[in-house]
Amino acid sequence: MAKRTEPVRKSVKEILEDLLTGHREASFNGPASALKYLNRTFEGQQSLPNGVKAVAFDLMAEAKAQLQDWEGVTEAVQGFVTNLAAMEEALGHGFRAALEATTALERGVQAWSELGDFHAALELCDRAIELKLGAHWEAKRDSLDWAR
């Protein structure tokens, strides 16, 4: 009787590294190629860990911003924010560095400003301030404060 091969089980960090490597390679051909890679990843990986989804949504927001798909950016940012707690749990000590490397919140403010929803842009600024992402967020919030 043949021995059954066990499926390969990767850790969240290994899956994240695979995602980043694939995205980096796809990005060489531009944001449309990067977006195609990310869409395929979401379609092909129904069990993609939520912590990895947060990073994928961050990368998606960046690609969509480069393509000026502002509605798409807002959807990606919402996915990023939804999965942020899972990202923190999955990355543990590496969360802070990974969070500081993301651009989803920046792209979200840009997208909502482009779409004229300055209240949503302000909410993202407040969220970034809560996450202690730097003083520049307070300046960004102050520049949008007129919308309150």
Summarize the model shown:
The protein has helices at 12-27, 31-44, 50-66, 70-82, 84-91, 95-101, 104-114, 118-130, 136-144.
Notable characteristics:
148 residues; mainly alpha; 9 helices
* Rg, nearest Å: 17 Å
What does the oligomeric state look like here?
A: single chain
Major sheet attributes: none
Overall pLDDT score: 92
- SS-derived structural category: mainly alpha
Count of separate DSSP helical elements: 9
- The share of residues in helices is over 70%
> How many strands?
0
Low-confidence stretches: none
The helix/strand series, from N terminus to C terminus, equals: HHHHHHHHH
Q: N-to-C terminal Cα separation, in Å? A: 71 Å
Principal-axes geometry comes out as globular
Strand content: under 5%
Question: Would you mind describing this structure in some detail?
Answer:
This protein is mostly helical and 148 residues long. Helices cover 73% and strands 0% of the residues. The protein contains 9 helices and no strands. It has helices at 12-27, 31-44, 50-66, 70-82, 84-91, 95-101, 104-114, 118-130, 136-144. Helix 3 packs across helix 7 (104-114) and helix 7 runs antiparallel to helix 8 (118-130). The protein is globular and about 70 Å long. The relative contact order is 0.10. The mean pLDDT is 92.
